Records
---
Amino acid sequence: MNVIATEFTPWASLGGGVLIGLATVLLMWTRGNVLGATGILAGFMTPSSSWDWTWRALMIGGMLTAPLVLLGLTGSFPAIEVPMSRFAMILGGLIVGVGVTYGSGCTSGHGVCGIARLSPRSIAATLTFMLTAGITVYIIRHVIGG
Amino acid sequence: MEKLLVYISGLLFGLGVSVGGMANPAKVQNFFDVAGVWDPSLALVMGGALAVTIPGYRLVFRRQKPLFEQKFSVPTNRIIDRKLIGGSAIFGIGWGIAGFCPGASMPVVSTLNPDVLIFTAALIVGIFLAKLMMNFTENRRARTLAAE
């Protein structure tokens, strides 16, 4: 584990959030779907019809285009600094996959779409994963790492 | 037209995640590291997203139906159960360990960053594993009920 200090980026982060919000509203307005990354990915792998697969593929295609657009505009990909090991990527990925499937959603589905609808399930889910993520980082950095 | 707008929604989402810093595990871990090198940026990602989505959803839900489909497909379950809380608790642990969540890792797969690729592959395996486990417990419950 390394600790990589990052700068506070209020404007970029607020702007990024606004873009995520626009994307979320656009999908609800056009298709009536919640923009939950977990749901879109899981449904893409096990679609209920060919059209169901197509719109999810378009959505994911749009997502994948974004870093390339940024590369074209700014000359570099978005910063991806990874403080943890490859093993942590595998372990974390498996745990996230299991958790979001049992929990029926992740940061986008519960944290944005669900909270915006004032869904009690999503509010409870978001508070829960924020809390356990915080505890996990504390243990990694200040109990094991400290 | 529907196809184009759905693609644009994905593009906007990917841009937001990338620009906002959600796809940077160092920033994600630092957001949670209040006791260390705290970086509050991600609160603004969520704040910005909600500031648009709350009024935006309100406007959209004034319509009888979405532009291109017959009805809104919005989850209606309101029960907070063990599965929801347990699953969310597990997700948070994985998010803390890797610093990636699904919506953050998916757009940046196109950077071909090896950590992103490994995380996303493991994420997909995890989703399938969970579905298998859920089917298994469902079947067992159905068999137990049938035996009674």
---
Amino acid sequence: MANDKIRIKKLYTLSSENRKFSFSLPLKHKIKIGKREYEVKLKADEKYGTYILWKNRKYPVEIIRSSQNKYEILFNDISYTFTVETPFSLQRMKVLNSNRGKIEQEIIKAPMPGKIIDVLVREGTTVLRGEPVVILEAMKMQNEIISPVNGMVVKVMAKPNTNVMKDDILVEIKL
Amino acid sequence: MMKIKRILIANRGEIAVRIMKTAHLMKIETVVVKTAIEPYAMYLTGADVIFDNSEDNSEIPVFLNIEKLIAIALETKANAIHPGYGFLAENAYFAQKCIDNDLIFIGPSPDAIYKMGNKTIARKIALASGIPMAMGSEGNIANEEEAAVIAEKIGYPVIIKAASGGGGRGMRIVRKADEMEKMFIIASKEAEKAFNDPSVFVEKYIDNPKHIEFQILGDSKGNVIHLGERECSIQRKHQKLLEEAPSCALDEKLRKKMGDMAVQIAKAVDYSSAGTVEFLLDTDKNFYFMEMNTRIQVEHPVTEIITGLDLIEQQIRIANGEELRYKQNDIKLKGWAIECRINAEDVQAGFSPDPGKIENFNMPSDPCVRVDTGVQTGSSIVASYDSMIAKLIVRGKDRKDAIKNCKMALDKVWIKGTKTTLPFFRMLVRHQKFQDGTFTTSFIEKDLEKYYFNSDYEEMLAAWLATKLFVEENLNDDSINVNFEHGKTMSPWLLNKRINQF
Amino acid sequence: MDLSGKFYKAFSDRQSAIEKQYGPKQAEKQHSKGKLTAHERINLLFDNKTFEEIDAFVTPADQPVEFGKVERSYGDGVIVGHGKVNGRLVFAYAQDFTIMGGSLGIVHAKKIAKIQEMALKMGSPIIALIDSGGARIQEGVASLSGYAAIFQNIIHSSGIIPQISVIMGPAAGGAVYSPALTDFVFMVNHTSYMFVTGPNVVKEVLNEDVSSEELGGAEVHARKSGVAHMIYDDEENAILALKKFLSYLPSNNVENPPIVNDDGSVNEINEKLRGIIPEDPNKAYDVKDVIAQIIDKNSFFETSELFGANLVTGFARLTGKTIGVVANQPKVLAGVLDINSSTKGARFIRFCDAFNIPIITFEDVPGFLPGIDQEHSGIIRHGAKLLFAYSEATVPKITIILRKAYGGAFIVMNSKNLGGDFSFAWPSAEIAVMGPDGAVAILYRKELAESKNPVELKKELVKKYRDKIANPFIADESGYIDEVIDPAVTRKKIISALNALNNKWVKVPARKHGNMPL
């Protein structure tokens, strides 16, 4: 009756620096460079841990974080952040971005009074949702104050070894 | 006759392992100290005696606790102490305390440490010995007005330095007269905070210099030789990252000139041990004395490689009272050596420390590679100490060959568990300015657009992995291989009761 | 089949008419808002070609009074039917915003009610894909009665079949109670909203300017109100996650949850667990690291992640079998219990109990959150919910005390005398009436006041208290917990405890229902 299926045939993987890689499904264990296809293998062993084997060379890999379609991957000692999008979700992203104002900010406030033990980000750091930005000691416990959003830190108000009151602004993040 | 029978290594990590290695070769016993912070550290394996200090919960690390270290040495019947680098290595009081307790301090005399440790005194000595120096104040300066007068005389830019300083703290560059007041206050405050001494002095600031240092050996009989230079211009915020020996900026003539000067200043303080005289070399090949380090340095292996000498052995022999077996003419520099400091740092986050547990650790075992390390698989890089994982030292027949070998070796290093400075070195060895040798101490800040290297396909491979994870988690029907029938079969005991309840 | 014969003329006409109704133009309307069409959503959810739609051709009711205009469409703005999700029968309805804004008229409502009743009869889960402007004004009270019937059905089915709502567009006014009554609510960021009174009314009544997103967007409900249990950045991720989520749940309250084949790849002994709890008892850690090291690989599906984050709840698997995980999160607010975390935990536990899912509790709780705000907002009332839910649950209940287990919070978090089946403690556990600092301050008030060096004395007393009272061994030796275990064997211990509890049955006293402090 209605069009049969919206089977996902392709995935777009976007890096945080806006590079776009496309992969058709089912996902092949091969990557095409020019005209030749090269085999990619994901392996793990005792000596090397998890690694990718590509053109006879091993690259260390580690999955640092993943939430929903967002992945932070450490590849050969360099970390990359990706979102994996379907053709529709990519289109949706464009639609929403154009509907919405471009600049959005998230302000992280102290959830309780306490003492700042450590500030884990600096201006310019990119943070993922769920990543700790500040460590606040309250109730004799060190609490990680986490970023509720993905974005880039634009302002850091929190200073180590200072006391803050509830709702004091700690960090501003640009989405 | 070897008087030194047993050495207390008042240090940890890579340098403790390094000292132990030579001590073993010389059939001298070693004592190391186990701490609560690193109870399973690699440096604890292979020592003859382990002093367990892990119950000590004091705020000050034991390696900075003079009384405690002396007590440990006496208790474990060590008759010598090697301080390594960092911690108490350049503490004249500690050296004196060792002597007072009949312990041999493997290093220079307390007097030499004191004189070279205070930059104002060191400057005076250097001046008196006719060593070229950047123009500047003769001693400490009292206030910003005095600083401004001197700066007018020698011309801007000038640099304000802490008299007791080191490591870049308490240092400020002043480019214009109206910045002087502010910078003076900052530098002096920083100096007070860092070194408990607010005194500062002013000297001419040399733009874009190279950092050249000479390795010195002096014995207690007054013989002093130099072992050639090292270039340590690859620095970030005054922290050295890569060192090499020799330097492509020096020819034989300049080497001899600078070397002679280095020997001269060492002689002026009756220096007896291994030490390093640091110079700045400007673009017109004028050199200026900066300071003398009275200890073994992190980057000593590059000198060992091109001279074939074991510097720790030399330190021990000199401390033992032996006379140097080499004259200046015996020292021949052969080949080229490069050292990369592989630290647990996040290059992408501005080299911020990234402590953690080393999950996999494999280093290349090629003949052209030497690895000095204090970690192994399973070790932890702890936040309380420096972030060094390993020093990758590579040799070659010339500079080009050494760079080629270094590039190869960097690709074979395999460290998992923390982020490392490897991507930075991979970038560096490919950089034109590094290859042609025209880099200076401002290279990282000025010439490097990107702090890390990744080949064209690496990001794509990482993206492929992200995609694979997404597919496995969400789209792969096999991954959720659910057996719903299972839920319908259960023991009659349970099923009957459950049904009767409803 | 030849559809050109005379019998089939009308049949094929209708077919082409409905195809036109759901044509590319309608799809474009949704897509331009960043939303999928109702059919696309259904197709994403169900296994390939397994969805059977019913009542596709019903048309809206006649208007009782001529006011505005009702579009004469097929299906009346909702698609209902059944199909297979990961091979299992599931019922669903999906509202279609392209037809009269997905508004709910009486025919629309009756279709939903019909599928709800079928789902209950079959004992199968039901999914609501909601994208609706609310009650259809043109149909007046009839549409309100439609809502009432839907609510009634949800309540009848509650605790018998899993009911899940996915909000993919607006849900406003009385309509919000349909998802609110169901077991779990999924929302999509930026394109879904829920509110009882919309921004316009807020503006009129209170003269406050607020956007739909700020008032009732996914973030707000996930973080602040707790209405949304799961939120996603786009609809595809939401539906893919929903499919995964369903794989943890049984079809009804008689069945046990499904299992996935356990490949035995997870070692029963895991030494990494020994290193997670920091030596410093005041230092935080992430309890999710503990969970991840115990359960089957990557099997944790967290619910209400952003709401009351000081208590972690979610489903996971152990040797392929579904478990419900409740864990204090030392990383957030030191893992204290407060109003939000108590209500979140209570509702999760009740769901697990209703659907035969064993509850594993990881405990590291310094106590209840002190303060005027909490007390005046009724932490007593809300904390009682968690207590009630734990005690009432008859499914297997196992507790692992990781570190702090102090005071009332210790009792509440599934203590053995509250009906917990097994209670294990790690050697790092501190079980006592209160934390060392508080206890010492009370017990030695006088001594501390008179001491010349109260700081030193306190330090000494705290150490003594830790050694003597705040450890797991006293509780172990007096039988208040079952065993102090090596953290490395936690998985093994839980698995064998669950095996022992496989056929657990508790006779509940006959009654209409208990009176939970709501």
